[in-house]
Design a protein that fits this description.
The protein is mainly beta and about 130 residues long. The chain has one helix and ten strands; from the N terminus they run ββββββββββα. The radius of gyration is 15 Å and the shape is globular. The relative contact order is 0.28. Bound molecules: dTDP-4-keto-6-deoxyglucose.
């Protein structure tokens, strides 16, 4: 499976570092929504779903976590621990997020507004969906 990590340009100077993200530049889609998770409890695993029509960039802007990506055939574990690195996650990809450090802040840029109907939360239904759309 091809994992798409994007390294963002760091605008650093003697005051510190700054990352700027613009749609269709660093981020390959129209950014319609931003959300982030923090204070994730020890041992917690989140996600356990795929999307029918959603592109996202996951950035661990503080601390660290791991992302499991599963396209129905292959699985890949991607560690995220750099505020200047984004993980592109397409639709049709089962995802789980885990191993959050206590200080982790996982920020997500999304191509669509929140829509519960876009979620596939059952793993067998996900496999059926990807096989049908292969
Ligand atoms: C994804 C992974 C990486 C909203 O009201 N609006 C939102 O935009 C989102 C993302 C969530 N919510 C509500 C829905 C639930 O009541 O927040 C609650 C927690 O959401 P959820 O259980 O879906 O969170 P995760 O961490 O399992 O998954 C999230 C995204 O939902 C999902 O699209 O790809 O992060």
């Amino acid at each position: 499976m091809e994992v798409k990590k994007i390294t963002f340009q760091i605008h650093g100077d003697d005051r510190g570092q700054l990352i700027a993200l613009e749609e269709f530049k660093e981020v390959p889609f129209d950014i319609k929504r931003v959300y982030y998770m923090y204070d994730t409890g020890e041992g917690v695993r989140r996600g356990f779903h795929a999307h029918k029509c959603l592109e996202q960039i996951l950035i661990c802007i503080h601390g660290s976590c791991k992302i499991l990506l599963d396209n129905g055939t292959e699985k890949e574990i991607v560690p995220l621990d750099k505020p200047y690195e984004g993980l592109y996650v397409s639709n049709d990809m089962w995802r789980e997020m885990y191993d959050f450090s206590p200080d982790a802040v996982l920020m997500v840029l999304a191509s669509e507004l929140y829509d519960e109907a876009d979620y596939i939360r059952d793993y067998d239904a996900f496999l059926e969906y990807v096989n049908k759309h292969a």
